[in-house]
Amino acid sequence: MVYILNQEGKPLMPTNRHGKVKHLLREGRAKVVKRTPFTIQLLYATTDCVQPIVLGVDAGSKVIGLSATTEKEELFASEVVLRNDIVELLSIRRQNRRTRRNRLRYRKARFLNRVKSKNKGWLAPSIQHKVDSHLKAIANVYKILPISKIIIETASFDIQKIKNPQISGVDYQQGEQEGFWNVREYALWRDGHECQHCHGKSKDKFLNVHHKESRKTGGDSPGNLVTLCETCHTLHHKGKIELNLTKNKSYRDATFMGIMRWQVYNKLKEIYPNISMTYGYITKNNRITNGIEKTHTADAFCIAGSFKAKRSSVVYFQTFKRRHNRQIHKANFLKGGKKKLNQSPYEVKGFRLFDKVLFQEKECFVFGRRATGYFDLRKLDGTVIHRSASVKNIKLLEKKSTLLIERQVA
Ligand SMILES: [Zn+2]
pLDDT tens digits for 38-78? Predict the structure, then answer.
């Protein structure tokens, strides 16, 4: 798939006609604006003809799934891995500052100047990063495709519907079964995704949600449901074990759940006009009934909701990396009272950390550099391409950025 921008830089429908693209580039009627995903800009006036494209977003605290689909075809699929080092880095920073204050006595303790006390919209930096990353990843899709609608999964179950089962609407029309999928997800979450009889001793990873009283008499209320592993569940129904359940778990409060995802949803609503939300239990139901595998991009595809569309064979794998190592000096002094530098030079032989490069016809990233000019090259998932590749054989493809992107063919 080649993504196309018009003369003004607005995205048009992408194309599969590589011959045509090559021709346009050769004739000088288009120029390449981005290598990954491959995007060209037309240099002549065109009429914008676009079809409806829905962007499904599987929001997550570790990985985001993205899928942009028309009714017929998935146009873009991507998996974005978020940073998970922020909490640790901040605690190291705190420690360093404390040491400097105590040992060097040149810096007074800071107080009454905390962002937290001033700013109401404050989020913990690790959560702020997750929210910002969602916005950035989505904005990047808008740069290459004329998206008409976003659908985002905000939580795995709808707690309001469980608390007030009389709420009808869509759920009522789609029948009782869908309501059960919702309560089922809640029960799994309440029980911590653990068998409540053996507490994981059976090592069976398949979980079922068991009706304590039969469904006819006990119904689908959370109080009548309990999580069991398949082993225990089967044994119980064969009459071989008596369930040993600790007393009924109280209603676990779910209001704090998914703060990040709701935050993303609310921010997106301010930016994009056409956005709606869905729940994980609906995605899961759709995924299973349509026989679709369990990956983040597949979930995003299910969220987008065009089940007849042809799936994309290319997945863009993206990860966030920190821009810079902020600690300038090592904590301990060298002999003679010298401070040892903690940072490596910004550029070594013209290359930066995480530059995308070409080595032996393979696209990869600079994960480590030595002053001698031998680099550690890897794929984004960490697969080693070469541990000590000579800089002479490396060609720069793209300068580093905080969001690295790699094309993967399924
Ligand atoms: Zn069990």
Answer: 999 999 999 888 899 999 999 988 999 999 999 999 999 99
* Yes or no: domain 324-409 corresponds to CATH 2.30.30: yes
Closest by CA to 297, choosing from 151, 142, 79, 114, is: 79
Helix (H, G, I), strand (E, B) or coil at 263: helix
In whole numbers, what is the pLDDT of the chain averaged over residues?
A: 87
> Going along 259-355, which residue ranges are E strands?
275-279, 314-320, 329-333, 339-341
Calculate how far, in angstroms, residue 288's C-alpha sits from the geometric centre of ligand 1: 23
C-alpha 243 to ligand 1 mean position (Å): 10
Q: 239: CA distance to ligand 1 center in Å?
A: 14
Ligand 1 centre from 62 Cα, in Å?
28
Q: Is residue 171 pLDDT above 50, yes or no? A: no
Alpha carbons 54 and 71: distance in angstroms, whole number: 9
- In this structure, are residues 121 and 115 in contact, taking their beta carbons and an 8 Å threshold? no
Boundaries of every domain in the chain: 3-42, 54-84+120-157+255-320, 168-237, 324-409
| Structure confidence at residue 121 (pLDDT) | 75
Please state, in angstroms and rounded to a whole number, the distance separating the CA atoms of residues 305 and 290: 11
Give phi and psi for 42, each to the nearest 5.
Answer: -75, 145
Other Cβ atoms within 10 Å of 377 Cβ, number:
24
CA 200 to ligand 1 center in whole angstroms: 6
Q: Residues 372-381: what's their mean pLDDT? A: 93
Which H or E run includes 270?
helix 259-271
Class of domain 54-84+120-157+255-320: alpha beta
DSSP summary character for residue 310? B
Which residues fall inside 5 Å of ion ligand 1, going by CB? 195, 197-198, 202, 229, 232
Phi then psi for residue 267, to 5 deg, are: -65, -45
Q: Which residue has the higher pLDDT, 253 or 74?
A: 74
192 Cα–ligand 1 center, Å? 13
Q: How far is the CA of 277 from the centre of ligand 1 (A)?
A: 34
- Model's pTM, two decimal places? 0.83
> Would the pLDDT of 355 be above 80?
yes
